[in-house]
Amino acid sequence: MTTRISTQISTLADLGWTNFFLSQLDADELAAPARVMSVHRTKMDVMGCGPDQVPFEKTIMPFSEPDDPDDGSPGRAATVGDWVLLDPVTGQAHRLLDRTSVFKRKVAGHERKEQLIAANVDTLFVVTSCNQDFNVARLERYLALAQDAGVTPVIILTKADLTDDPRDYEQQAMGLMPGIVVEMLDARDPDQIASLLPWCTTGQTVAFVGSSGVGKSTLINTLTGQDSIETAGIREDDAKGRHTTTSRQFHRLASGAWLLDTPGMRELQLTDVQDGIDAVFADVVALAEDCRFKDCQHETEPGCAVTAAIDAGTLDPKRLHRWRKLALEDQHNTQTIAERRSHEKSFKKMVKRTVAQKKRFRDD
């Protein structure tokens, strides 16, 4: 780390430490809790307070829990925002604490793996702009991710000056799910940014997500009062931006909150977030429960409450299509990853049997 943020830290609570994490420590625990600030291929940066309450920053080896030998379940890898316990002798992480929340997605392409995005986040700022980047389907994906993780989502609309009717974008965003908070602001104006401060109090962790070029870096620069993050313009033909953030990283606000910037993610493949999808599409789910048949496909079946709502004009057929698409994608990705884990579990058992058989053969 180049900036000694630890000089601004006086207690673990400043880093987001709560009773939830404290309750996981043994009574005679000597290990020092530390929060993961960034993760790289061969190292990770952590920050914490030692037994003497002296804050520290250090770089250690990446940490992953070992697989469970009994059921073959995979171990968890530490990601940005996690809390780990550092061994008092080696100074390396030796235990990963349970999380209050975790964001993950299926990796891009055909690989059957999950990618961790961040852990222990309190609020998710979903940033989009009032231009061609505004995409209802993508926003619903982010909201499903937040709802499943139990994290409060806030939609932030930027670049309202680029359109003659910014309120149309605001109304579309507010209609995505009941009670969603939408803030429309100029990312360069500190006075307008002040509307975000209620979610940015001491020890709170806020993550930013959104496509490249929507103004996340400008927002963070304004919130921190610095120009530490490079910004770039957008292409005029499609309003798409260039990546300026290349890795997940924490920034501390004067208010004591932690901001987590993430690289622009246009491809967000959902996995194992069915509860989040149901929460975002609660209106469709409620209608489906009133269908005559429990296995109704909402197409031509008699007594379908969903198609009746479409015919009555109270449900947009495009919303039904997006719900189906996300639900099918989540189901496919979840099953695919589960199959991979099952295959790995079977392979490990086979290796274990083979080793045992060889040992018995040698003993005989």
From TrEMBL:
Residues 113-268 form the CP-type G domain. InterPro entries: G_CP_dom, P-loop_NTPase, Ribosome_biogen_GTPase_RsgA, RsgA_GTPase_dom. CDD domains: YjeQ_EngC. It comes from the Bacteria. Its main location: cytoplasm. GO terms for biological process: ribosomal small subunit biogenesis. PROSITE patterns: ENGC_GTPASE, G_CP. Residues 119-266 form the EngC GTPase domain. Its cofactor is Zn(2+). It is found in: Cytoplasm. Binds 1 zinc ion per subunit. Keywords: Cytoplasm, GTP-binding, Hydrolase, Metal-binding, Nucleotide-binding, Ribosome biogenesis, RNA-binding, rRNA-binding, Zinc. It is an enzyme of class 3 (hydrolase). The keyword Hydrolase applies. HAMAP family: GTPase_RsgA. One of several proteins that assist in the late maturation steps of the functional core of the 30S ribosomal subunit. Helps release RbfA from mature subunits. May play a role in the assembly of ribosomal proteins into the subunit. Circularly permuted GTPase that catalyzes slow GTP hydrolysis, GTPase activity is stimulated by the 30S ribosomal subunit. This is Small ribosomal subunit biogenesis GTPase RsgA. It comes from Candidatus Phaeomarinibacter ectocarpi.
